[in-house]
Amino acid sequence: MASSVQLTKFGNQVAGHDKLLQFSTNDLMVIKPSTQTELQFYEDSQNDLEFRCWIPKCYGSLHAATESELQMLEQQQGNGQLEQEGAAQVPLLPQQQQQQRLQDSEGRPLDEHLCLENLLHGFTRPCIMDLKIGSRLYDNDADEAKITKMKENAKGTTIESLAARIAGMKVYDTTRGEWALYDKNYGKSRTKDDIADAILAYFFPTSSYAHISEEANRKTLKDEKAAITSKRISSNKMEWLLECFIEEVSGIREYLEEHPSIQLIGSSLLFIYEGDKNAADAVWKKMLEEDRKEKQQQKENEDKEGDEDEEEEEEEERPPMYDLRLIDFAHSSWSSKQEEQDPGILKGLDSVLKLLEQCLERQQQEKL
User: How confident is the model at residue 72 (pLDDT cuts 50, 70, 90)?
Assistant: First the structure.
């Protein structure tokens, strides 16, 4: 008899409709409900190696098995053709070949879903910020009611003024051992004059920016497993992180301007960095050691120029210090006929760059 795959709620979603799932046996992937448009966007993205670096890896799609597919699977298992021990070995096959029953934690069958890279894998306590970009929030097929609704939702928010808006944040304060969660209403209530303060609260959760007042749309959650420390993540590490994010956003902006056929509607930039001080210090130490080894190897190669390169030793993959990706493509496409990139997208990315540069400047001035 075919065993069903157990999927559980993904607990680190900071924006959207709170419907992401993951396998109960590992955290390598997230399972996301998908539109045909988003499926097609990921499929088209596979042809562009550079752009793929800025979006989550896509491992395929899953759908609820039909009765005939279930019967086929049960017959194969009965004949000894399939051997499976739990969800960890579920074959993630293309849609046409998928023969495994999928259901959520409440036993409800799933429809079409994307299997995407879990960008939080490897982090100990990831700090997450979802920044919506672009001034247009509806696609080409939207009816008048939908267009009116989306315009009303954007009215008075930083979508109008900056073509960017905070959709949600989850931040860890390593000195208190607690999480701060900021919902979409927090982002909607920001203005062009105070959004930089909100982003400073994201990058510096131990600073006064995170504790100026008790926000109605900000709640805290104690981390019972936390090892509380009196020291925050050092200023030089946070300065480096901000510089890295500025460089990444600049690269994305430049690429999108050069490729106007990529039409992004309702997409976001997802920022992630390691918020646990002990974990961040350990990763930083490994990074410095990697740099030292690389410089030493370059020197050795220069000294023995002309000799055959020795085989490099395979090193254990270190945990990440940060990540930045474009996400959410339910209304996006590669088939746009526009000859210039949507000015709303470029404006949004320019706004994000200016905000990050402001944060870096204030971090240096105020020694955050």
Answer: low
Burial (Cβ within 10 Å: 0-12, 13-18, ≥19) of residue 62:
buried
Of the candidates 349, 340, 162, which has an alpha carbon nearest to the alpha carbon of residue 257?
340
Rounded CA separation 211/178 (Å): 13
Q: Would you call 3 helix, strand, or coil by DSSP? A: coil
pLDDT for 315 equals 61
Q: What is the CA radius of gyration of the chain?
A: 23
d(CA 315, CA 334): 37
**Spatial separation of the C-alpha atoms in residues 230 and 162, rounded to whole Å:** 37
Using an 8 Å Cβ cutoff, are 174 and 277 in contact? yes
Q: Quote the pLDDT of residue 167.
A: 94
> Which residues pair with residue 182 across a beta bridge?
169, 218
Percentage of residues of the chain with pLDDT beyond 70: 77
φ, ψ dihedrals at 257, nearest 5° = -65, -35
Distance CA 300, CA 353 (A): 39
Tokens coding 289: 């050691």
Which pLDDT belongs to residue 227? 82
Walk me through the domains of the chain, giving residue ranges and CATH numbers: 5-117 (no CATH), 126-276+318-366 (3.30.470.160)
Concatenating the DSSP letter of every residue in 171-224 gives EEETTTTEEEEE-HHHHHT--TTTHHHHHHHHH-TTSGGGSSS--TTEEEEE-T
Beta-carbon contacts of 319 under 8 Å, excluding residues fewer than 6 positions away, are 122, 123, 124, 274, 279, 282, 283
DSSP state of 96: G
Closest CA to 32 of 22, 41, 43, 42: 22
62: tokens are 């899953």
> 175: left (phi > 0), else alpha (psi -120 to 50), else beta?
alpha
